[in-house]
């Protein structure tokens, strides 16, 4: 029997199979946070279909917080990757485009039937278009440095948290029996803000350097803000939403002022490139 099945001897000259390089754990951590946020968004849809709107709203807010954390952790750990960027965009579309619109449809827009569903579609499509434009603008090398402190249109997490304002108000006792047309107009208005070119202040330069005398007050304000959010979540979310919407005109004015200042600066002369030297014909 041993003659029928001789032992296999590998060819010593045969090239070895190429193995994939191990992935550092610091690259995996931000993606895990993104996936947790995606699970929260999907769970919020289930909670809304079950009529449990309060935990659904909390899940969306938690997903928005994690969305603001994963990118910063990736840059802190030097674990940014193209895969993580694409995963983050897909998760943002689900969490901040599909989920809030479905929650509002299940809450009040279903009373408008087809019109309510059209508003859901418009909001979700506006969100995916806004994310696609954001990804394209990241690769624009000609964008001035001062413009990077502004979003073009309303950012995705802000659009989701802001869109849930009717739910915040209902939790505070505001009647929503006949508010479906108002909610429809409000949702379409947010969709327009997301796909528009209206500049929205990003605040990316905040936190890079803090004066020493501001450190302790920032600690106290952070603890007080967290305590207020835990104790009065929907009052705080309502105030944040109203303040954010009110700051959009201020951001537009600041953007225009910086644009005029940038346009008034003398442009640096472009370097003169000498023409190529053509060798004489032989």
Automatic annotation (TrEMBL):
- The domain of life for this entry's organism is Bacteria
A Gene Ontology cellular-component term: membrane
Per UniProt, subcellular location reads as: Endomembrane system
* E.C. no: 2.7.8.8
Q: EC top class, in one word? A: transferase
Domain (CDP-alcohol phosphatidyltransferase C-terminal) spans 213-249
Write one Gene Ontology MF term. Answer: CDP-diacylglycerol-serine O-phosphatidyltransferase activity
**What transmembrane ranges does the database entry give?**
27-49, 55-77, 89-108, 114-132, 153-171, 183-202, 238-257
Q: Name one GO biological process term.
A: phospholipid biosynthetic process
* Family of this protein: Belongs to the CDP-alcohol phosphatidyltransferase class-I family.
Q: Which NCBIfam families match?
A: pssA
Q: What's the protein called, per UniProt?
A: CDP-diacylglycerol--serine O-phosphatidyltransferase
Q: Which gene encodes it?
A: pssA
């Amino acid at each position: 029997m041993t003659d029928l099945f001789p032992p296999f001897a590998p060819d010593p000259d045969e090239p070895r199979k190429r193995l994939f390089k191990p992935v550092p754990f610091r690259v995996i951590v931000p993606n895990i946070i993104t996936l947790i946020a995606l699970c929260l968004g999907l769970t919020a849809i289930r909670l809304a279909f079950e009529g449990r709107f309060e935990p659904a709203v909390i899940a969306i807010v938690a997903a928005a917080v994690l969305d603001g954390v994963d990118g910063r952790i990736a840059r802190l750990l030097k674990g940014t990757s193209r895969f993580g960027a694409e995963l983050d965009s897909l998760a943002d579309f689900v969490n901040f485009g599909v989920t809030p619109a479905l929650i509002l449809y299940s809450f009040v827009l279903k009373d408008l039937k087809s019109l309510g569903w059209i508003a859901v579609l418009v909001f979700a499509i506006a969100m995916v278009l806004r994310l696609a434009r954001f990804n394209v603008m990241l690769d624009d090398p000609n964008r001035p440095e001062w413009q990077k402190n502004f979003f073009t249109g309303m950012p995705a997490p802000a659009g989701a948290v802001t869109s849930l304002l009717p739910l915040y108000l209902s939790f505070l006792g505001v009647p929503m029996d006949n508010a479906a047309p108002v909610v429809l107009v409000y949702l379409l208005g947010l969709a327009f803000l997301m796909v528009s070119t209206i500049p929205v202040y990003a605040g990316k330069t905040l936190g890079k350097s803090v004066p020493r005398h501001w450190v302790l007050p920032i600690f106290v304000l952070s603890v007080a803000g967290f305590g207020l959010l835990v104790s009065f979540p929907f009052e705080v979310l309502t105030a944040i939403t109203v303040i954010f919407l009110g700051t959009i005109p201020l951001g537009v004015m600041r953007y225009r002022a910086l644009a005029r200042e940038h346009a008034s600066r003398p442009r640096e002369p472009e370097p003169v490139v000498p023409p190529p030297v053509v060798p004489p014909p032989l």
